[in-house]
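stage 2 :: seqdesign
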């Protein structure tokens, strides 16, 4: 490209004024007043409103990935307990688990969950535990009610979704969403609204919030980046997609507590984004096998991932929310008792 600068004009003004910058320190003797303007009295740089405490839930194993995908995946009760205890030893306050059968598949079994959670609760009464209780047949529907009555968990996600999740059809019908939520509430447990796409937010609004079954502020789990979920192909789509879901949630549930589940390739990048936004996170082997989006390094332990995120929290001037404070926060989800009673 040709040089179009008018050099004679530049030289004329350099000769007249040299290279002096126009500078008038009207707040003299201060050059820059950090707190308040010397002239208007207004705050120059107001402090950000960022929650000091951050929820960091560690999801130990989940329903999706096998040892073929990640040989470090915890499947047996003892593996799940050992992984959870490694995280707790490093300061984890909130543990999320799934139960697996002898073949390694996800299962809703009260005895299988008791093998894990009763042991962990007895050793670590200060820690909060929750579990994903997805019933896929009549037997598991019965087990769901037994699990809720067993008093093993502090919260249970409700998936308000209908998606093609990888190579699986994953649909929670409207009546199932409503009835599961009612059972959770009747058991004195807090439902967590789990959404995978932006449409799931509207399902939660229509079926649970505007129906009066629950009232906010609620706790939400955003589970993107897995195949069939809100896609995150690169940093731009991650930011755009996550911001849209967060805005929709806060529209239907002002004051919502939102946890980003660091899933798929987005992994720890999404956790970092959520913490920067003043939100909360769920990390671990449930939602991804990878540490980072741009490399193929596998998660070798949940404790390692927890430590990385724990240090992220500290580096941003935030601190881990304790299990007791988390339980207090969960009690914010309420219900319309008259409406529930009428449905029974």
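stage 2 :: out
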């Amino acid at each position: 490209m040709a040089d179009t600068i008018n050099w004679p004009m530049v030289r004329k003004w350099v000769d007249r004024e040299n290279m002096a910058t126009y500078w008038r320190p009207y707040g003299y003797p201060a050059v820059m007043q950090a707190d308040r303007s010397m002239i208007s009295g207004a705050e120059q740089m107001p402090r950000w409103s960022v929650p000091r405490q951050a929820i960091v839930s560690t999801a130990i194993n989940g329903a999706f990935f096998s040892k073929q995908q990640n040989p470090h995946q915890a499947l047996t009760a003892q593996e799940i307990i050992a992984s959870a205890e490694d995280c707790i030893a490093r300061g984890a306050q909130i543990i999320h688990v799934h139960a697996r059968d002898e073949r390694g598949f996800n299962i809703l079994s009260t005895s299988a969950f008791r093998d894990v959670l009763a042991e962990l609760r007895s050793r670590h009464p200060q820690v909060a535990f929750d579990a994903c209780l997805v019933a896929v047949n009549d037997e598991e529907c019965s087990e769901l009610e037994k699990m809720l009555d067993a008093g093993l968990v502090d919260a249970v996600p409700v998936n308000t979704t209908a998606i093609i999740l990888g190579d699986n059809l994953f649909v929670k019908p409207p009546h199932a969403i409503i009835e599961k939520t009612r059972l959770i509430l009747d058991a004195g447990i807090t439902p967590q609204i789990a959404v995978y796409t932006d449409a799931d937010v509207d399902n939660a609004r229509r079926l649970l919030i505007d129906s009066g079954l629950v009232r906010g502020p609620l706790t939400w789990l955003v589970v993107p980046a897995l195949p069939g979920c809100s896609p995150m192909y690169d940093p731009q789509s991650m930011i755009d997609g996550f911001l849209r879901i967060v805005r929709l949630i806060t529209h239907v549930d002002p004051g919502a507590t939102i946890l980003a589940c660091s899933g798929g390739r987005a992994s720890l990048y999404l956790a970092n984004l959520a913490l920067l936004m003043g939100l909360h996170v769920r990390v671990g082997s449930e939602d991804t096998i990878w540490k980072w989006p741009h490399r193929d390094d596998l998660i070798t332990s949940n404790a390692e991932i927890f430590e990385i995120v724990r240090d992220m929290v500290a580096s941003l001037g935030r601190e881990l929310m304790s299990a007791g404070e988390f339980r207090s926060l969960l009690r914010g989800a309420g219900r319309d008792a008259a409406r529930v009673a009428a449905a029974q």
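stage 3 :: structure notes
- The chain has one domain: 55-338.
- Residues 9 and 71 are 70 Å apart (CA to CA).
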